[in-house]
Amino acid sequence: MVANDVNTHHRHVQTRHDETTALSSSLPLSPQLSSKTLLKNQDHEFGQRFMMALNIAGVAFSLLVTVFSLFYVDVFLRVYRLPLHSYSTGNLVFTVVNTTNDLLGAWLLDAAATRMNRSDLIGIAGSLFALCFLTPFFRWNDPSDNETHDVAHFIISISMYDTLYSFTMILLGSLVIDNHHLTDKERVNFMASGKILNLFAAFFVARIGLEIFDTNDMHQFRIFLVLLALFVAVLFLVSQIMIHYHVVVHWKAARIRFSDVHRRQTHTPKRTERLKPQQVARDFWRYHNFWAWIGMELFLESQNSFSNAFLKTFVDRLIHDAGVSREGCDWLLSTIRPLGLICTILCYIPIRRLGYKKVYPILFATNIGLCLFMWFGADHNSTGIIIAFLIIYPAITGAVASAGFHLVMSDMVLEMKKMHAVDGRLDEASLAGLFMGVNALFCKPAESILPVVAANMLDKLDFISEENEDAVQRVLFKLLILPPLVFSFIEWISWRRYTLTPAATNQMREDLRKLEQKNTSLA
């Protein structure tokens, strides 16, 4: 699923990229029809085949994000030996660049959706993402005589990856959140099914990568990365073909026939009004639930992406250096993400019963309790307790963030559509992509705060050498505990202002359906 999991300094690395549901449809769903009925959207049939195509694209997305989030920090700091102050500076620069790119990409995506279907871009976006994924891992190994060249490669390569990462995530995510014909139960079931696929895929590529990754010889690892990128590009193209064509295999005649879905459509795409920048800005400015969400999400995104990006560093310096074998650490690293996906699947159970609005505060309280226990009951030498924390904290935090993100976005897009309908603006373009773009506008800069702080603190201790091992471990222990402890309090305060509940969204969905029917009858 998409925007499957998303998490790393991309939390998305872990959090968002697993989730993708169905495509937006401009036709109201009658009470007698189930989501399995082939409904017509703007260009394509909406049914099981389309959902399977989105799952394939989501798995492809998750494969790249898993490998990138696990290795990119190690590659730049240990293989390329990029100075920590350069790493810190580069993070700040590419955050500005990529925040701008995210907002621009979301705008272009929603603008294009007024004349075409977003799903038409899956193949090309996924293939470009696979290509840009390779750029951080291919470079001269030894530091350059001129440090500027190394910093330039860091900024450019990470920016290329992150730009295509964000665009693909927003593309797949907008197909999830812009469909309001699925019930909450159907949407949750679809997301959970995608998590199961990602569970095995993430474990498989993590184990292979950890087996062949060697800081002294990157040759085999780079071959693995190229093969992975080619495989992922093929998966994205297969997803595109499944969306656009019915594939019929004639075994006796030994031929394959592609039936173009476009030619079978009887529904004429509805062209919506073009996006107006001033009106879009006013819509977001007056939308209080969105700002309550941002106040919580930017801190959750920051702590989650930092935990994902520095996970291998925490394991290597706090666990491996404490005497745990390399093989044991590799097994821990390769199982943490699948455990997180299992937690995400299980997280849908309380979400279905209580609603995500009540699940988030439970997460905040749990993280506060875990961090207080670590602060008062353990230290940097408590290897067993640190292992338990590294298993529990990323798993539950990533699970709630991943499971809740697209549900929250979907409900806010629904409320925005109702606001448009009440104002008599039913023909205006959907802002599904821009919801994720504006979200990135605030969350991406927040993601760079903790890496910059960590880099500056570790640089003072000469992180690369082993002379100050005890001091480095003390700092890493604090960096592991303090961010979730402090941020969870802030997240809880901001989340209290969020008002969308399952009952409220069900009522909005019904009100919007009536307004659309009324507008159609008047037309």
Automatic annotation (TrEMBL):
Record-annotated membrane-spanning stretches: 50-72, 92-109, 121-140, 152-176, 188-210, 222-248, 359-378, 384-409
Region feature Disordered, mapped onto this chain: 1-27
Key words of the record: Membrane, Transmembrane, Transmembrane helix
InterPro entries: MFS_trans_sf, TMEM180
Listed Gene3D superfamilies: MFS general substrate transporter like domains
Record protein name field: MFS general substrate transporter
